[in-house]
């Protein structure tokens, strides 16, 4: 593992990574911990701010230049911005089911889904994480898959218990 590619990356990429990494960790924590507490509300606001910074910074990243500097990934950034707004509006209206649905979509689509594509060979995160080790990508992907399966199964078990 080497941070050399990130240290030499444009400032927009550095800001993007500096926002999305804590958003990924904090989002996982929030999804797994009790909801509605003062801590959840505070950390949720911080998480939404990190998501907005992540989405906004992506508009200054043009490595996949398909249409005037933009690519389909920028549509995901629009989804994240509108989703953040929807999460806030629904939380304030006490529409908790819609809030949960939006936040889960933001996390699993905007962070997990998009994050998986950053590890494709040739992309910066691939160069940062998998430098020179042929087995490491498979070990990391297996670990991510196990954590996701655990989180989803825990959530499904909790839902069954409530019904």
TrEMBL record:
Coiled-coil residue spans: none
UniProt keyword annotations, A-Z: Membrane, Transmembrane, Transmembrane helix
Entry-linked InterPro entries: DUF2306_membrane
Transmembrane parts of this sequence: 6-30, 42-61, 67-90, 102-120, 135-152
Pfam families: DUF2306
Name of the protein in question: Putative transmembrane protein
